Structures are given as structure tokens and as C-alpha cells.
Amino acid sequence: MPIITVERLSKIYPVAIKQPGIKGTFNHFFHRTYREIKAVQDVSFYLEPGEIVGFLGANGAGKTTTLKMLTGLIHPSSGNVRVAGYIPFRRQPEFLRQTSLVMGQKQQLLWDLPALDSLRINAAVYNISDRIFTERLSELASMLALENKLTQPVRKLSLGERMKAELLAALLHHPKVLFLDEPTLGLDVNAQVAVREFLREYNQRYQATILLTSHYMADITALCDRVLLIHQGQLIYDGSLDGLLQRFAPYREVKVELAQAVSPEKLKQFGEIEAIEGQEVRFIVQRENLTTTIAKLLAQFEVIDLNVNDPPIEEVIGRLFQTGTILENLDS
Ligand SMILES: Nc1ncnc2c1ncn2[C@@H]1O[C@H](COP(=O)(O)OP(=O)(O)OP(=O)(O)O)[C@@H](O)[C@H]1O
Question: What does pTM read for this prediction?
């Protein structure tokens, strides 16, 4: 049975329009007019317990709005949501005990206090006994390698340590469902890897369900077998990461090592040149032109080595998010 059920969920934000000038300001006060922003439109999906699912979309696609409705921070305009058996917007205490939201750009830990003090407050809020608090603290701090950091004021922690402390605070009550909005934002590569490894371990240890947004594709490839793709408020893909590449990357990367360097002018005819490093050239070639392009390359040049790969996921998603590209792919 799904732990998260989202059915025909929509959110429309009314936004007041203000014309410039004094007349505009006057009208703004007395005859305010509004336009509608359809941030989320008719979105449906289900998550099974223990799944880690990536939630992808360009800036402004509707990810945060969806997460806010799933955690009960905002009310849907229409549709149904159930998380762990609860309607999020009611914000019942039992719902809050089963879920947690971590936003990379917001923090719950108090800046000037040691994280430990904020964690004690959380323990009191969630009614966690001293014994369980000590047990969980020691387990999570060791999983996150934070043992020596919790007594320092939060402002003295590095960004990565702070994010790990935020995760500790969010997980102290052992939620069944964890919503993560850009948990690795701004972290260096080592800290990103540490956060990812922790999430994987936590998910395996407690079968927690995780819905995760991230602009770092490494987070998604490392953690998520399944992804949801949202575009202009609509869910346009729900499936495996490989399936996403097949569907939205109608091209492949051809890497060829030539016996002699060849000018870019001569190479242009074979496809879009991604990079030239000495005698090594990387092209983007449409899938349907792949065999003819390779045949032409082999006929015209002395080729030492040739590889065909799916382009890196970052690249596919980057292209996908460029205006219009998603819609072109949807039409085809
Ligand atoms: N409180 C609000 N009032 C009006 N419009 C809003 C509000 N919050 C978000 N929006 C608009 O709704 C749309 C979806 O925004 P949302 O923050 O959900 O996108 P997102 O996918 O999380 O983007 P990002 O990756 O940039 O965080 C955007 O057009 C945004 O401008």
C-alpha cells in the first residue's frame, strides 16, 4: 500500500498586479486585481514505503510547492494528498511525528547555540525520552561523523557540518517519510558524498521513504532508481532514470580518437562538437543518425578508437530544462 498518495493535486497562487505610478498604487490599495500562477497542475503519483524517489524539474517548475503541500505547509487548491495515512494540511501531531522536511536553503537549528541545545528542544517537542534521545543522538551523530561538533555554536560549523546537523535534527524523531529540498545545495564534493551516503544508510536501516529534489544529478543517480519530472507544474514523467534518458535524450555521445588532429570545420558535419582535446573529439549525434555518422567518420579519417555512450545525465537534464526542449521532446 502506498505511503504517499497524490491525486490530481493543483496549486494556484493568486498574485496581485500593481500598475506603475501613483494611480497604480492607489488602485492597488482600493481595487486590487489578481492574476493566477498555476504552480502545480493535476499532479498524481504514489510512493511505496522505503522508496527513494528523485523529484526533478527546472527552476520554477513546481517542486517546492508540491513538497509544501505534501508537508502541510500550504493548502492545495484542489486534489487529494495522503502521507502516512494523514491529510498533511491538518498538521495533526501524529502526522508531524511521521514526517520531516529539510530545505537546503533554510535552517531550523539556532545559529548562536550549539546544535545539541536545539536537538534537546526538538526532543522535548516530539516527546522523546532522555534514554531514547541519548541512543538516537549517539547513533545519528556517529552515522554523520558529527560526534565532536554538536557542542559548538552552529555558526562555527562548516556548511557541510551544518547540513548534517540539520539532518540529525530532522531525523531525531525517526520519521517514516522524509522530504528533502536541495539537501546538498552549496556543499563541496566530499560533503555531498557524505550526505548521500548517510541518506542511503538511513533509508536502508529504517526503510524510510524519501522524496528528494536536487540540482546535483550525482545525488539522483546515487540514490534514486525512480524519478518524477515536473515541467511548468505538470508531471510529465514518472519512471526509471534509464527510461528518462531514453525518452528525453534522443541523442548519444560519440567519442573518437583520430590518428591526426583535424580542424573543427571538417568535423562539424558529423554532429554537434562537444569538445576537442588534441586528437580526441566528442560529438553529440542524434540516435537515428548514429550508424551513418560512424560509417562516415571511419571512411574519412584514420580512427584509433571510438566509443558511443549515453550523454551524462547532467547534460541531458541541462538540455531538457532549456526553454522549449522538453516540449519538443514531448511532441516527438
Ligand atoms: N508564494 C507564492 N506566491 C506566488 N507565486 C509563487 C509562490 N511560490 C511559488 N510561486 C510560483 O510558483 C511556481 C513554482 O514555484 P516553486 O517554488 O514550486 O518551483 P521549484 O520547482 O521549487 O523551483 P526552484 O527549483 O527554483 O526552487 C513559480 O512560478 C513561482 O514563481
Answer: 0.83
Closest CA to 142 of 188, 205, 59: 205
Q: Where in the sequence is the domain holding 273, given as residue range(s)?
A: 250-309
**pLDDT tens readout for residues 227-243:** 999 989 999 999 998 88
From CA 160, how far away is CA 244, in angstroms rounded?
Answer: 30
Q: Which atom of ligand 1 is nearest to the CA of 68?
A: 18
User: Residue 196: enclosing H or E segment and its boundaries?
Assistant: helix 189-206
In angstroms, the CA 181 to CA 170 distance is 13
- Rg of the Cα trace of the chain? 24
Q: Are residues 261 and 198 both part of a single domain?
A: no
Whether residue 157 lies inside any domain: the answer is yes
The verdict on ipTM greater than 0.90 is: yes
If you take atom 5 of ligand 1, which residue's CA is the nearest one? Answer: 13
Calculate how far, in angstroms, residue 65's C-alpha sits from the geometric centre of ligand 1: 6
CATH number at residue 230: 3.40.50.300
Q: H/E/C letters for each residue in 18-72? A: CCCHHHHHHHHHHCCEEEEEEEEEEEEEEECCCCEEEEECCCCCCHHHHHHHHCC
What total number of domains does the chain contain? 2
